[in-house]
Design brief:
Number of strands: 10
Strand content: 25-35%
Number of helices: 10
Distance between the termini: 32 Å
Structural class: alpha/beta
Radius of gyration: 17 Å
Low-confidence stretches: none
Largest sheet: 6 strands, mixed
Shape: globular
Order of helices and strands: EEEHEEHEHHHHEHEHEEHH
Helix content: 25-40%
Length: about 240
């Protein structure tokens, strides 16, 4: 778990005159769940979108090391497609499924860079084993699914590219408490099978409970970092995010 997979040094994101992310430095080791918590508007999604190549950014360093070749590669300024080919995928905030396509078609799109038909079929079954409700609804259009089912589909679609680093942007947003518990249980399960996860969450309590390492983002910069357990017990974090 000590091998570094993602390393970021002094990441900055500007939207016109707004300096949304300021000198953010962070690292993710292979096999970890790393969470980035903070209030709405703190810059969490800007960080994760920068890593995916979806937002213009500046940084001193942004490298990704795939377990396949174990060589750090700069991903700064590269398009999202390059990131997917390297082994990074994202389940975006708001799910962004294609409502007119079926569950199966949405999942198949997640594997668009792959040509190994047998492997794609195996991964489809793996996603269905994680989310049995998706299997039950595999021929239904995305628009007919509940919010929780759409979130499952978004995570499943991200898994279909067989990523080394899975990034989840606000996976619990808008879900009923019982579904939040289910989603975080599945995040644990995916991680236990060897997947490295970067989790961006407003639900600080649930995120810190599953995280090996955590960063607190406040108005665009990292104010605290430590293990998930350390931040769960930090008085400042408890006061700001955990209701005291």
């Amino acid at each position: 778990m000590s091998e570094n997979m993602l390393k970021i040094e002094k990441l900055n994101v500007n939207y016109g005159a707004i300096h949304a992310v300021r000198d953010v430095s962070m690292s993710i080791n292979r096999g970890e769940i790393v969470t980035l918590i903070g209030a709405n508007g703190a810059g969490k999604s800007s960080v994760i979108r920068s890593i995916m190549g979806l937002t213009k950014c500046h940084a001193e360093e942004m490298t990704f090391t795939s377990p396949k070749d174990n060589k750090p590669v700069s991903i700064l300024g590269k398009p999202a497609e390059t990131h997917v080919k390297l082994g990074i995928s994202i389940s975006p905030e708001g799910r962004r499924i294609l409502p007119q396509l079926t569950v199966e078609e949405n999942l198949t799109l997640g594997a668009y860079i792959r040509e190994d038909v047998k492997g794609i079929s195996e991964d489809m079954e793996y996603v269905y084993s994680l989310f049995p409700r998706l299997k039950e609804r595999h021929k239904q259009k995305g628009s007919t699914l509940s919010g929780g089912e759409q979130q499952m589909l978004a995570v499943g679609r991200a898994l279909m590219s067989r990523p080394d680093l899975l990034m989840l942007d606000e996976p619990s947003l808008g879900l009923a408490p019982i579904l939040v518990d289910e989603v975080f249980e599945i995040i644990r399960e995916i991680n236990s099978q060897g997947k490295t996860i970067l989790l961006v969450e407003q639900n600080a309590f649930a995120a810190l409970k599953v995280a090996h390492k955590a960063y607190v983002l406040e108005v665009g910069h990292i104010s605290l970092s430590g293990t998930g357990a350390e931040l769960l017990n930090n008085p400042k974090v408890r006061a700001a995010y955990l209701g005291g």
